[in-house]
Every structure is written in structure tokens, then in C-alpha cells.
Amino acid sequence: MSETKNCGECKNTKSTKFRSLKGEKWREAENNDLVKITWEEGIILCNVCYMSFVENPLKKGHKRVKTMNENVTHEEKVSMNFDLTKAIKVMANIFYEREHLRKEGPIYEFDEMRRLLQEIEPSLKEFFDQLYLAARPLERNEQTMDCMKNLMVFICYLLISLNNTKINSFKLILYSI
């Protein structure tokens, strides 16, 4: 009578192939931080779990995520951490002056908004750079980036509305979508 095996990870008993994680493979998995807390040397895994959690990650190589503190100077940290609250307040003031005092209409194009606001307040460059990079422009086609730019305009007006409820452009943008 054959012994019923079950996977130590997914508890599967119906797999046609089970593998034991021990010896050299265990040490290799440990060295690459692939071992889960609940695992012990010699754990039995079904083929799917073994390939997902051990073999394929070992072949690809374990990717280590760089933390903020590694190889980053103090100046670089400061430049990466722009003050979002200040950026929102500055944008709100610019839009209030533009739309309520000078009676100019809302801006619907991201590139125009970015250019105009950076001309008025150069400190907003970091904000717009980060906002644009958050859209992952290198991974998207031109049509998708056009949609993303429309969303970024919407986001700017939304952020401004958090600071200043007097700006009605957000309502105009919201209703035009």
C-alpha cells in the first residue's frame, strides 16, 4: 500500500510528482532567501510548488530590492523626497490666481500644465517629474500615455481641490470626463 503524500505548501495530494527539498537544494534555497518560515529541511512539495518557489526562482536568480538607504547620498534622498504638501499648496495658489483673479480657464493638457506651472514655480519640477514617472511612460504606447496624461491633469486638479475648495475647475474637469 503506497503512502499518501501531500505538499507542505499547498496541501495538494493529487500531484503525480512530489519533490523533497533537502541537501544542496535546501542550502541553495536558503542562501537565496527562498525558504518560507513554515518550511523545514526535507519538506515535501508538489511539482508545481517546487517549480514556483524553488527551481524557477533559482534559475532566474534571486532579485534583491534596493532600499532607499543603499548607495544613495543625502542630497539624492532630499531631491527624491519633494514636499507634496508644499507642491499642492503652490499649485492651488497659482490656479486660484489664474482662474479667479485673472479669469483664465482651466488647463486640459498635461504638457501645457507642466510647462506653465514650472515656469511660474520651478520647485514644481520634481513633483511633475515624479507624477510623470509614476505613469511608467517607457512601458506604455503613445495612445495609453495620452490617456495617462489626461488622468494626471485630473489628479492635479483633485490634489488642488484638497487644499482649496474655491477652485471650480476641478468640477469642470470632472464633468467633462
Describe it for me?
With 177 residues, this protein is mostly helical. It has 2 domains: 1-64, no CATH class; 74-176. It is built from 8 helices and 2 strands; from the N terminus they run βαβααααααα. The protein has a two-stranded antiparallel sheet with strand order 1-2. It is rod-shaped.
Low-confidence stretches: 62-70, 74-79
Spatial gap, N to C terminus: 68 Å
Oligomeric assembly:
single chain
**Number of contiguous helices:** 8
Q: Helix fraction?
A: 55-70%
> What is the H-and-E element order?
EHEHHHHHHH
Summarize the structure.
The protein is mostly helical.
List keywords for this structure.
two-stranded antiparallel ribbon, 5% strand, 177 residues, 2 strands, mainly alpha, 2 domains
